[in-house]
Input
Amino acid sequence: IEAILKSISCYDIKLERIQTLLIKWFPEIKNYTLWSDIEKFKKVIVEGCWPFHPASIWVLYKLASVGKWLQQRSVLTLLAEVIEAYKEMIFTEGQTIRPVEIFTENLLDEFLMSEKYSAQGSAALAYQTVLDKYKYQFSEYDRAILKAVVLIRKLGINAENTEDYLEALSMFCGIDRNKAVEHINSLEKEYGVLEWNAMMCQYEIIGDAVPRRAFLTELDTR
Output
């Protein structure tokens, strides 16, 4: 049990801080004792659901509970898929299954179907568009950040400012803030596929953007 607690908390922030942030970003968590009571949170969400990060468990619950994206059977299928993918993995200290790691091809398909037939936004479609365009140029971190943006958009986050959002993005990706900022800058300025929406206080994926290099090339040509 101590190893499990250590593997989650030592990597980035203490468990109390994780719980506080999740409640801040998703205020409805306060309505659930399992999540709002720190001892139950540690016992059930942290220990009981390891090696999944608490944020991953909330993502799965939220996607199923709102009834817009996943049915209960779909969640169980997704869990089985992720567990199968990681069953041989030996988790090192500080390593857990983060939300972006449950963003599988099947989950993307579910999002795309819901957007197509239920008018549930266009974040997944924008993600698919930019991934098709730059899949050979994007790094693993680039893809992780874009996945996190889609998940956060689907859940609806109560972020106060850019710093607050970046902290959520780092938690969802499992990477430190500096690295996240580095790749966000690249996605914004080099590829032109991310844009900060100040009104919504979140990043949005721009599916029809022209990358900076292509723009400069066009200028040179003209």
